[in-house]
C-alpha cells in the first residue's frame, strides 16, 4: 500500500528540492548544473582540437615508419592500428603518471610505502606481444580442458564390452597429464600446446615432473649461493654490513672504490677516520682486503693452511666460510710478523671476520705500481734486487716465513723501495712443502731480475741457498728439488716423532748476508 502511495504522489510532487531530499528516484532539476555551458563547450572543443592535432601529427610518423612495407591492401588498416596503439599507449602513460602522483601523495615521507605497481597499465618488462599470441586468461578458454567436463564415473570405466574405456586409457591419461603440467613451478616453461591435442604419456610426464622439481631446487641453490658469495667486484650483504659498521664507528671516513680484484680477494680503497684504537693510529689512507667467500677458489689453496701447524688443529673441523676467515687471520699474523721485523709491508689496522683493513701503499687513491708494471733504471733495478734478497732472508730467519707466492706481481714499488703484499698464503719453513714454495719464489725472483738485466742476480739454486742457509750442492734442478723434498720428508718425520715445531734443517753456520 505504501509503495502505491509513493507512486501516486509522484506526479503531484514538483521537482522541488524538498522532494529530492525525500526520494532518491526523483528526477534531478536542470538548475543543479553549476558550471556554465561555455565551460563545457570549451572543454570539449579543446579535446576535439587536440585529437585533430594528434591525427594530423601521427599519420606522417606512421607513414615514415611503414614506408617500405606499404602494399595496396594493408595501407589503411596498418596505420589505423598503429594510431590506435599509440593513442592507447599515450592514455596508459597518463594513467600511470596519475597513479604515481597518487602513490606519492599517499606515501608522503612515510617509511612504509604503498605501491600501486600492480595497477599500472604500461609494465616496463612487457614485450610487444605479437598478434597471434593469445592470452588464455582473457579468452577464458583453456585448450587442455575438454569443452564438456567428462567425469570419470565411480567404477573407473565408461562403456561396455569392446567399447569400454577405463581411467588407464592412453588418450584420457595423456590429456590429463597435459593439463597437470600447469601445476609445475611458474619458472618452469612448459610452453603452450595450443591447437595441438597433446597427450603426454605417464613416462614423459613423470620425467618432466622430476625435472621441474630439480630445476626448482637448483634455482633455490643458485639464489642461496648468490646471497652468500662476494661476487667479482660486488660485496655480499654480510660484508656490506661489516663495512658499514666500520664507517659508522668512525674508524673509516669513506670507502672510495675498488682498487684491484684477484682470485681470492677484492681490495678497496678507503680514507681512514680519526677514532684511534687503543694502540693504533689509523693511517690516512687504508686498503680494505675482502676475502671472497665464493668457495671454489679456496679448494685449491687449502694446501697452504692445512699443513701449517699454526692452523692445523682448526682446519679439519671447519666449514669453508670459517676457513676464509682463517685466511684473513693468517694474512694478519704474517703481516704483523713482517712488520715487527721491519720488512716494508702494509700495516694491519684491524681484522673483522674476512675483512682485513691495512694501510694503503700508494697516494691519493692511486695504488703503488707492481714491480712488473714499473720501468726502473738499472741502478734502481739493482737496488730492488738486493732489497728483495735481504727481505727474503729476513722473512726466512726473523719471521720464520716463506712467502710462497713471491713474484713481480706481489711486490710494489713505492717511495723508492720494494713493498711485499699478499702474504695470506705464506707458510713457515717447517711446512711439509715450505722449501718447495721457497724454491718456487727463488725461481720467480731470479728469472725476473735476470730478464731485467741485473748482472749480479744469482740463479734460483744459489738464491735458495743464500736465503735458506742450506748448502744444497746439486748442480741441476732435478737433483736439487729431490734434495729439497728429502729434507722436507726428514723434517716431517721429525715433527711427527717429536711433536716439535722447530726447524731442523742443518744449516752450515749463518748464510752470507748479501748487500751492496
Summed up:
This protein is of the alpha+beta class and 516 residues long. It has 16 helices and 11 strands. Helix 14 (434-451) packs antiparallel against helix 16 (477-498).
Description:
The chain is of the alpha+beta class and 516 residues long. Helix 14 crosses helix 15 and helix 14 packs antiparallel against helix 16. The longest helix is centred in the N-terminal third of the chain and has 33 residues. It is extended.
CATH homolog superfamily of the domain at 234-367: Phosphorylase Kinase, domain 1
Uncertain residue ranges: 5-11, 60-75, 124-134, 506-512
Q: Describe the sheet with the most strands.
A: 5 strands, antiparallel
Q: Rg from C-alpha positions?
A: 40 Å
Mean pLDDT: 78
Biased composition (Basic and acidic residues): 137-148
Keywords: Antiviral defense, ATP-binding, Cytoplasm, Immunity, Innate immunity, Kinase, Magnesium, Metal-binding, Nucleotide-binding, Phosphoprotein, Ribosome biogenesis, Serine/threonine-protein kinase, Transferase
Cofactor: Mg(2+)
GO biological process, one term: defense response to virus
Question: How are the secondary structure elements laid out?
Answer:
Elements: H1 2-12, H2 17-22, H3 37-66, H4 75-107, H5 136-139, E1 157-158, E2 165-166, H6 170-180, H7 202-228, H8 237-248, E3 252-261, E4 265-272, E5 285-291, H9 296-299, H10 302-306, H11 309-315, H12 320-341, E6 348-352, E7 355-359, E8 362-363, E9 366-367, H13 378-397, E10 411-414, E11 417-420, H14 434-451, H15 460-468, H16 477-498
Antiparallel strand pairs: 1-2, 3-4, 4-5, 5-7, 6-7, 8-9, 10-11
Domain RIO kinase: 224-469
Enzyme class: transferase
Family: Belongs to the protein kinase superfamily. RIO-type Ser/Thr kinase family.
Amino acid at each position: 500500500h505504501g509503495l502505491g502511495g509513493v507512486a501516486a504522489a509522484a506526479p503531484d510532487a514538483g521537482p522541488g528540492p524538498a522532494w529530492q531530499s525525500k526520494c532518491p528516484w526523483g528526477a534531478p532539476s536542470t538548475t543543479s548544473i553549476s558550471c556554465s555551458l561555455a565551460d563545457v563547450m570549451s572543454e570539449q572543443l579543446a579535446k576535439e582540437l587536440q585529437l585533430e592535432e594528434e591525427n594530423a601529427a601521427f599519420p606522417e610518423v606512421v607513414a615514415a615508419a611503414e614506408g617500405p612495407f606499404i602494399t595496396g591492401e594493408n595501407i589503411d588498416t596498418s596505420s589505423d592500428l598503429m594510431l590506435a596503439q599509440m593513442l592507447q599507449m599515450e592514455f596508459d602513460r597518463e594513467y600511470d603518471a596519475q597513479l604515481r602522483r597518487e602513490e606519492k601523495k599517499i606515501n608522503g615521507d612515510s617509511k612504509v610505502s604503498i605501491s600501486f605497481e600492480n595497477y599500472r597499465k604500461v609494465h616496463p618488462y612487457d614485450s610487444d606481444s605479437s598478434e597471434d599470441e593469445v592470452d588464455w586468461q582473457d579468452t577464458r578458454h583453456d585448450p587442455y580442458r575438454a569443452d564438456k567436463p567428462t567425469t570419470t564415473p565411480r567404477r573407473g570405466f565408461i562403456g561396455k564390452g569392446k567399447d569400454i574405456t577405463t581411467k588407464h586409457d592412453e588418450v584420457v591419461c595423456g590429456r590429463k597429464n597435459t593439463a597437470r603440467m600447469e601445476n609445475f613451478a611458474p619458472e618452469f616453461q612448459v610452453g603452450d600446446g595450443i591447437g595441438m591435442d597433446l597427450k603426454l604419456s605417464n613416462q614423459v610426464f613423470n620425467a618432466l615432473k622430476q625435472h621441474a622439481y630439480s630445476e626448482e631446487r637448483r634455482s633455490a641453490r643458485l639464489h642461496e649461493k648468490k646471497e652468500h658469495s662476494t661476487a667479482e667486484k660486488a660485496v655480499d650483504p654480510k660484508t656490506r654490513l661489516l663495512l658499514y659498521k666500520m664507517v659508522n664507528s668512525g674508524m673509516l671516513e669513506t670507502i672510495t672504490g675498488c682498487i684491484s680484484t684477484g682470485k681470492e680477494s677484492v681490495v678497496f680503497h678507503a680514507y681512514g677516520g680519526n677514532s684511534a684504537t687503543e694502540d693504533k693510529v689509523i693511517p690516512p689512507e687504508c686498503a680494505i682486503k675482502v676475502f671472497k667467500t665464493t668457495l671454489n677458489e679456496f679448494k685449491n689453496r687449502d694446501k697452504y693452511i692445512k699443513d701449517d701447524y699454526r692452523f692445523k688443529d682448526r682446519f679439519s673441523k671447519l666449514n669453508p666460510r670459517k676457513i676464509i676467515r682463517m685466511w684473513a687471520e693468517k694474512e694478519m699474523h704474517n703481516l704483523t710478523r713482517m712488520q715487527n721485523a721491519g720488512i716494508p709491508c702494509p700495516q694491519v689496522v684491524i681484522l673483522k671476520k674476512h675483512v682485513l683493513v691495512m694501510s694503503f701503499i700508494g697516494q691519493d687513491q692511486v695504488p703503488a705500481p707492481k714491480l712488473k708494471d714499473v720501468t726502473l733504471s738499472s741502478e734502481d733495478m739493482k737496488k730492488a734486487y738486493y732489497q728483495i734478497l735481504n727481505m727474503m732472508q729476513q722473512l726466512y730467519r726473523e719471521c720464520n716465513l716463506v712467502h710462497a707466492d713471491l713474484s713481480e706481481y706481489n711486490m710494489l714499488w713505492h717511495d723508492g723501495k720494494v713493498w711485499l703484499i699478499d702474504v695470506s698464503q705464506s707458510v713457515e719453513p717447517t711446512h711439509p712443502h715450505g722449501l718447495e714454495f721457497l724454491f718456487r719464489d727463488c725461481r720467480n725472483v731470479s728469472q725476473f731480475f735476470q730478464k731485467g738485466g741485473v748482472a749480479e742476480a744469482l740463479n734460483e739454486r744459489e738464491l735458495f741457498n743464500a736465503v735458506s742457509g742450506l748448502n744444497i750442492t746439486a748442480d741441476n734442478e732435478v737433483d736439487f728439488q729431490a734434495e729439497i723434498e728429502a729434507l722436507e720428508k726428514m723434517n716431517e718425520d721429525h715433527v711427527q716423532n717429536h711433536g716439535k715445531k722447530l726447524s731442523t734443517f742443518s744449516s752450515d753456520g749463518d748464510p752470507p748476508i748479501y748487500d751492496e
